[in-house]
Every structure is written in C-alpha cells, then in structure tokens.
C-alpha cells in the first residue's frame, strides 16, 4: 500500500489516542460543578488526572506535527480555514493547564473557585469545538480550486457540525465521569456513578443521531469503505450501551473501558467516512483534498515511517508505565490528612 494511505490511518490513530486520553481529561474538568460539593471533593476530582493530563495532551501535538509533515496541503487548508476555532481550542487548553498549576497556590476559596471555573471552560470549549471541526471536515466545507477555505465561522456552525460538537462534548463528559468513578472513593464515587447514568442516556440518543447522519453523508459522498463506516458505528453504539450497563452494576473499570472503545470506534467511523478524501469541498467535489494530492513525497513519508516504528512504541511504553504507577484510587481521607497537615 502507498505510504500516504498508511499515514492517513496513522494520523487517524494519533487523533483517536488524543480523543480517548484527553477526552476523559475534558470530562473530568467538566464534571467539577456537578461532583465537587466542597473543596476536598474538587481536589479529589482534579487529582484523578493530576499526574497524567499533560501527558495526554501531548498526543494532539504529535498528531498535529505528523499531519503537518505527512499532509502539508491538508494542514494548510484546515488551519487557515479553521483558524478561529483552533485558536479558541489552543487558548482553552492554555487556560486549563494554567488553572491546574495555579489553583493550589492560595487557600482563598474565591481564588480556587475562579480557577475551577476556568478548568470547566477550558475543558468544555475543546470538547465542543473538536467535534464541530471534525464533523465539518467529513461533511464538507466551502473550498475553491486552490483548496482555499472560502467560508466563515458561521458556515462551520451548521446543524451537522453543531451536532458533532454536542456528541463529542457528551461522549467526553460521560467518559470523564466514568474515570472519576473509577479513581475515587466515598461520596464523589457514588455521585459520579449517578451522574454517569443520567449523562449516558442523553449521550446514547445524541450519538445515535449523529452516527446515523454520518452514515448517510458517507453514502452521499460515495465512500468506498461503507462497510467499515457502518460496522464502526454499530460497534460504537453497542459499546456505549455496554458502558452504561456496567456502570449500573458498579463495574466502573469495564464502564470506562467500553467508553474508551466507544470513542475509538466513533472516531474511526468519521475517518472511514472521510476516506479517500482528507478534506471534502462542498463547493465542487473536484476541489476536494484527497490523500494523494495532499500528501508529502515518498521520501519524507519513508523517514517518518522509520521514526514512528522506533519512537512510537517507546512513547506508548512510557505512558503505560505512568498509568501503572498512578493506578490507585484517590481517597478523600488522604486529601483531608494532607489539608490538615498543611494548616
């Protein structure tokens, strides 16, 4: 197979990894107003992702760098056309990262509440806008013969794009609440299970509508991998339902695992629906960017392939080791003891 096609799926895998890992970070951040009844509870929630959130976030840097190197035309068209949404995502990620680091620098409740609000906003904005961006790439955006985006921010805020954003927002939220239930004890654990039940039911309905709509869009574009599109959408639906059922049985590990597979297969549904295009033109299909006309040279892709073969297993091993080291639950009693010693 041509290396350009291989790298189309490698980039897809990198974005899958980012959405799964940083996705539950977003969900944890968005859950603060619903689960954090007091400062100890909010610290318990934030500490579930404290050791891993920055490592999870690096996946988008790697994905963006690979996209730039493997598909420079795609990178240029997407980042110029989606400049404002991507800038808002970047600012939100900065806001969230700063809040994690500065929240504990003072004992003032007003100080902490302000940074908690920024964590919520910094988590919700990317969770929404990533879905809007990817949905528009699949559906198609206005582009001219030179592959220049000719629309505006309002053209991205169409019904399918907004539904995509709402779907990722709800998927990440539920995924994050599963993680909180998995990593905490006491009242926060019980509240997270109850919240996941409610959010999970809403997510099923919204995600089902979005995936069915995606299937129709892929069929309208004549996507050659329709069997994969339908298959991944079906698996995503089943896994989402299974995650809800396991949460009802207080099997939070299984619930979180099925939630992760839901996001994996949902993103793959979009990726298969996009193939062999990388950016569909709604102006004229002839103006669309494809894997072949957007990719770098074979020499560049060959060097990238060797680099990926050598370094990607090391990155995965390091991340797996990090999660193993911080695998224990974040207990409320330990945070209370630490707070008592601090005073």
UniProtKB/TrEMBL annotation:
Work out whether the entry's keyword set contains Metal-binding.
yes
> InterPro entries given for it?
Cyt-d_oxidase_su2
Any Pfam family hit: Cyt_bd_oxida_II
Q: Which GO terms describe its biological process?
A: aerobic electron transport chain
Q: Give the UniProt subcellular location, in the record's own words.
A: Cell membrane
Task: Kindly report the protein's main subcellular placement as a broad class.
Answer: membrane
Any one GO molecular function term: electron transfer activity
Q: How does it sit in the membrane?
A: Multi-pass membrane protein
Question: Which GO cellular component terms, listed alphabetically, does the Swiss-Prot or TrEMBL entry include?
Answer: cytochrome complex; plasma membrane
Q: Where are the transmembrane segments?
A: 6-35, 81-98, 119-139, 159-181, 201-219, 225-246, 253-274, 303-326
UniProt entry tagged with the keyword Transferase? no
Q: Which UniProt keywords apply?
A: Cell membrane, Electron transport, Heme, Iron, Membrane, Metal-binding, Transmembrane, Transmembrane helix, Transport
Family recorded in the similarity comment? Belongs to the cytochrome ubiquinol oxidase subunit 2 family.
Record NCBIfam families:
cydB (TIGR00203)
Question: Mind telling me what this protein is named?
Answer: Cytochrome d ubiquinol oxidase subunit II
